[in-house]
Amino acid sequence: MASDNSQRTRFNDRLKALPIKAGVYIMRNAKGDVIYVGKAASLRNRVRNYFGAPHSLEPKTQALVQQIEDFEYIVTQNAAEALHLEATLVKRHQPFFNIRLKDDKHYPYLRIDVQNEWPRVEIARRVQTDGARYFGPYASASSVRKTLSIVKKLFPWRSCTKVITGTDPRPCLDYFIHRCIAPCTSYCTKEEYDEVIRQTLLFLEGKSAEVLKSLRTQMEESSEVLQFERAALFRDQIRAVESVAEKQVVERIRPTDEDVFGLARNDVEGCVQVFFIRGTQMVGRDFFTLDGVKDEPDGEVLASFLKQFYESAVYVPKAVVVPFAVPEAGLIEEWLAQKRGGKVTIAVAQRGVRRRMIELASENARESLDMLRARWLADTSKRDQALSELQDELDLPAYPRRIECYDNSNIQGSSPVASMVVFIDGQPRPQEYRRFRIKTVVGANDFASMAEILGRRFARFGQTGKRANGQAAKAIEGHRSDDEEFGTPDAGFGAELTVEKEDFGAGQPPPPGIEDFDEERDPLTGWGALPDLVIVDGGKGQLSAALDVMRNLGLKEVPLAGLAKQNEELFVQDLAEPIVLPRTSQALYLVQRLRDEAHRFAITYHRKVRAKTGMESALDSVPGIGPKRKRALLRKFGSLKGIREAPVEEIASTLGFTSSLAEKVKE
């Protein structure tokens, strides 16, 4: 990595030569890989900012600058063109430091080749200028196939690829199940087939009312000429379209044309849910996942998604509805208006129907994010791959079946707590979670807090350890503590594994259905289980504190790693440089999940403790004052102020008090 001074010196002449024009700049690392793509109204002013004083930059930008070995730029006519080019290049190169659509190779579309004499509906991976009509993009192949299946059931267009001559001796099965009107055998005219395609296009555009009007006209015309079987087919088609349309109706009185977006995210990834509203119907919805969202504001995340999504969209609505303001909204509106050929507004939903739709979209985004995490957990092959990669990258002596991760939480040293989460065989085990109140550390000292909780956790191992040796048991005798609280699996990662009984742990009977909790049968559970890997949230400092504790306890054989948040680097013993897991590896995904779950669990407990502390009375800190005596004082004097102003003799005369206790209260 080049130092900041050497970069400024090396790039000085090139920075001076940058044009004061709009454009896009591309940053590359030592390998020549594109690591960031950005746009600017003035290339000179924007790019020079990266090589100024480091302390003025955000942590993520500082990490980017340290890896820049070269840059290039492309001048554009205006800022809107730069925005479009930026979105295109981000999708093409997938730079690590950009917010980017996850797994964005080429999202699928539905394509109808209206230039063909006998068009059909098919799936396409690219939008081409071939005169065909395209609908999309869809987030996945399953999404586009589902839509294709619905359209095929509603409209009898041909699905075959044969050359249509009209001379085939007999139609295929699709004709007999009313899925095609058989142009191959001339059972329909060219005009009738064109009407089917027109209705399909209208339906995909969200114009179901026009489709129903056309079908009713055809049904009535068939009845008038006594073609009752044909009229019955139109009747059945009308009912099918109405059934689908009923499911799409949203809370709209006036027709509209808008896309509604909701965002959910965690430290690792984001998920955007989009509702496509056309007229009074939701004609479709889909969700997309995003990488590179860490340390980025919600507005930046959503703005980056909008640019990448509409860069490849074949249709831009009149309104884009978002849950909060996004940066450069005016510039994005200008760019979308150019794509649409008419005015486009970006509206922040404040109240009414739009606000309710935003809330629904955001809730669906959260559900989709949870579903993706649950799907990863259910994929045994990915979990096995993650654990194998982790063993290889960290050079672990054993396959890491039980992994423990620790995190601290406090606000300027107040209400300090810590969490311990456990993954077994790559899956969260909520009944093994533990939470701690920090007792011996004053102020915000992450190193000392980490040392305390590790000492207390492995003191429990000394008491019940199946594999503890005599030295370890003796060493940790003085560290025992009986106040650890057992984890509550509260709506976090692995929530599908939650149990009903809140507090239970080693030595207590498990709730019904937890078959593997018995410590005698499962060596991976309980305080007596020795982990195959311990991860502490933090860098070298937290790792050093953890190593000292484990060494003092005679447990130095337990592998330890510190996970630094900024660049997600793993620090391990005896290695000067951190281990950087490949960005596409399953091992990194697992480590991120562990860190996020430990952080969530610590934050949840910290909020609970802080809320409880905030409701405590000053009387709670007086030795000898319990709930009954506190009530007696408040009943007699009315408030803390009344107690403070009362003489000692009057306090001593209160039921249950003595002179010495009254003096303590007065103090």
Describe this protein's structure.
There is one protein chain. With 667 residues, the protein is α+β, with helices and mostly antiparallel strands. The chain has 5 domains: 4-98, GIY-YIG endonuclease; 109-205, no CATH class; 256-365, Nucleotidyltransferase, domain 5 (2-Layer Sandwich), CATH 3.30.420; 380-613, 2-Layer Sandwich (Nucleotidyltransferase, domain 5); 618-666, DNA polymerase, domain 1 (Orthogonal Bundle). The chain is 42% helix and 17% strand. The protein contains 21 helices and 20 strands. Strands 13, 14, 15, 16, 17, 18, 19 and 20 form an 8-stranded mixed β-sheet that branches. A 6-stranded mixed β-sheet has the order 4-10-9-8-11-12. The chain has a 3-stranded antiparallel β-sheet with strand order 2-1-3. A hairpin with an 8-residue loop joins strand 5 (109-112) and strand 6 (121-124). It is globular, with a radius of gyration of 32 Å. Residues 466-521 have low confidence and may be disordered.
CATH topology of the largest domain: Nucleotidyltransferase, domain 5
CATH architecture of the largest domain: 2-Layer Sandwich
The CATH first-level class of the largest domain comes to Alpha Beta
Total number of beta strands: 20
3D shape:
globular
- Regions with little confidence, pLDDT below 50 for 5+ residues: 466-521
CATH-assigned homologous superfamily of the largest domain: UvrC, RNAse H endonuclease domain
Provide the structure class: alpha+beta
